[in-house]
TrEMBL record:
InterPro entries (alphabetical): NAD(P)-bd_dom_sf (IPR036291), Polysac_CapD-like (IPR003869), Polysaccharide_Synthase-Rel (IPR051203)
Stored Pfam families: CoA_binding_3, Polysacc_synt_2
Name this polypeptide is given: Polysaccharide biosynthesis protein CapD-like domain-containing protein
Gene3D superfamilies: NAD(P)-binding Rossmann-like Domain
Domain of life: Bacteria
Domain Polysaccharide biosynthesis protein CapD-like: 175-449
CDD domains per record: UDP_invert_4-6DH_SDR_e
Family stated for the protein in its record: Belongs to the polysaccharide synthase family.
Signal sequence, renumbered to the chain: none
């Protein structure tokens, strides 16, 4: 006897499509926006389900566009696929849609720019779903839709994640994040929390920033919670006591001074916080399983006080790797869009003030990534890195700062001018990700390079004259970066 065909899946799809057509044909009163989705993958399915069944939805989906020819004349959650991007303008006119929703959560920035340009040319509103790295703990829904940001236009990177490897070193562990109130540190805390550490300790010298990151994790939390630790890296005895009493097993060292022009003027402060502060944490971390030093692309062939100080911390971390049982490594990445005090913040403030936007040079370029994507890769890098390495996050192609300014001006309510002011002391026209002699090798992840770092003995930095003449101090820092590896092996 021939077995009966299981038609439950087909019936469910038919029922869903029928309900959609019936719902679509209802009077449009109260429906704020007829929308056309671009993208017919998983994010679109979740979003369409939310649009169709969430009673708070303000959107009526009238069709889907997708560049994959295999999806032509199919349906996504009962909504028809009506063509590819070339049909966008015609489909908007035919369906009466006034809004285009970009529903590809793992797309590159170039695709976001292309579809936005088509929507703008057709006179449609343009909304986006967040990148996957922003959706930490839920499927995309109508409440996640938002206006496009400059981070979408410049910084989206598709990231492959080995969740098992990450969970293996975070789940059930006591984790300490220094600089937890900063842009990188706070995002580290939010993403680490996903992996159920036994304890998440958040250390910073800024009490207001500590409270902010704590409330972002738990709106009912209080500052009496032992998870928050108010301390300065410059207090060596306090740092040792914290490690002795709290016994962290995994450390993410994100605390640092980072503003290049200020550190050029005050190099002694870079020594006290970036170098001696890192030394204090490294010396206290005698029993940790994994130590991750957050570095920067400015440490590759450094030419500034910031770059010198961060290269020295990479080398100090490599020295610890050679003398400790745990895994000690550094992670190096470039500019982070949306971080506090970034070029994004400065341009936003200048636009709000009516301009002009100030750019140092028309050809200056930088590597960019969003905070969520950078931290996502930091956590992944820590899972695969070996002791004594610097893991270099690949951030796509460098972007002209002037292009960042122009993209932000396009999103501004009124046009503003761009004024070029000239490169500042210690500033490069373009950053590099690798220093002299470093090779781009990616044995474990397509977006993470692993390069060995020559160690630098702790004793080499103890007697730096932080309060000496700035020029002499900068010369000393440069010399420590240039010391041959064999001198401190």
């Amino acid at each position: 006897m021939r077995p009966r065909k299981d038609t439950r899946g087909e019936n469910l799809l038919y029922l869903l499509a029928t309900r959609y057509e019936r719902w679509r044909s209802r009077p449009a009163r109260g429906l704020k926006e007829r929308v056309l989705l671009f993208g017919g993958g998983g994010a679109a399915r979740d979003l369409l389900h939310s649009m169709l069944f969430d009673p708070r939805s303000r959107y009526l989906p009238v069709g889907v566009l997708d560049d994959d020819p295999r999806k032509r004349r199919t349906r996504v959650s009962g909504v028809p696929v009506l063509g590819d991007r070339t049909a966008l303008a015609a489909t908007l006119a035919r369906t009466g849609a006034t809004t285009v929703v970009f529903a590809v959560s793992n797309a590159g920035a170039a695709l976001v720019r292309d579809i936005r340009a088509l929507a703008d040319a057709a006179g449609a509103r343009f909304l986006v779903v967040p990148a996957m790295s922003e959706l930490l703990d839920h499927e995309v829904g109508v409440r996640d839709l938002r206006e496009v940001r400059v981070t979408d236009l410049l910084g989206r990177v598709q990231i492959e994640t080995d969740l098992d490897a990450i969970a293996g070193y975070l789940t059930g562990k006591r984790v300490l994040v220094t600089g937890a109130g900063g842009s990188i540190g706070s995002e580290l805390c939010r993403q680490i929390q996903r992996f159920s550490p036994a304890e998440l300790m958040m250390l910073d010298r800024d009490e207001s920033a500590l409270q902010a990151v704590q409330l972002s994790l738990d709106p009912r939390a209080t500052l009496s919670d032992p998870a928050v630790i108010l301390a300065s890296l410059r207090d060596v005895d306090r740092i040792r006591a914290i490690f002795r009493e709290r016994r962290p097993e995994v450390v993410f060292h994100a605390a640092a001074l980072k503003h290049l022009p200020l550190l050029e003027r005050y190099p002694g402060e870079a020594v006290k916080t970036n170098i001696w502060g890192t030394l204090a944490v490294l010396e206290a971390a005698t029993e940790v399983e994994r130590f991750v030093n957050i570095s920067t692309d400015k440490a590759a062939d450094p030419a500034s006080v910031l770059g010198y100080s961060k290269r020295i911390t990479e080398r100090l971390t490599a020295h610890a790797a050679a003398h400790r049982e745990g895994t000690f490594l550094s992670v190096r990445f470039g500019n982070v869009l949306g971080s506090r005090g970034s070029v994004f913040d400065r341009f936003s403030a200048q636009i709000a003030d009516g301009g002009p936007i100030t750019v140092t040079h028309p050809e200056v370029t930088r590597y960019f990534m969003t905070i969520q994507e950078a931290v996502h890769l930091v956590i992944q890098a820590a899972a695969i890195g070996r002791g004594g390495e610097a893991l270099v996050l690949q951030m796509g192609s460098p972007v002209r700062i002037a292009d960042v300014a122009r993209q932000m001006i396009e999103l501004a309510p009124a046009p503003v001018d761009i004024v070029y002011t000239g490169l500042r002391p210690g500033e490069k026209l373009g950053e590099v990700l690798f220093g002299a002699g470093e090779e781009d090798r990616r044995p474990h992840h397509p977006l993470i390079s692993q390069v060995p770092v020559p160690p630098l003995d702790f004793a080499a930095v103890r007697n730096l004259a932080a309060n000496a003449d700035p020029a002499a101090l900068v010369s000393s820092l440069a010399s420590l970066c240039a010391v041959p590896a064999l001198s401190f092996s």
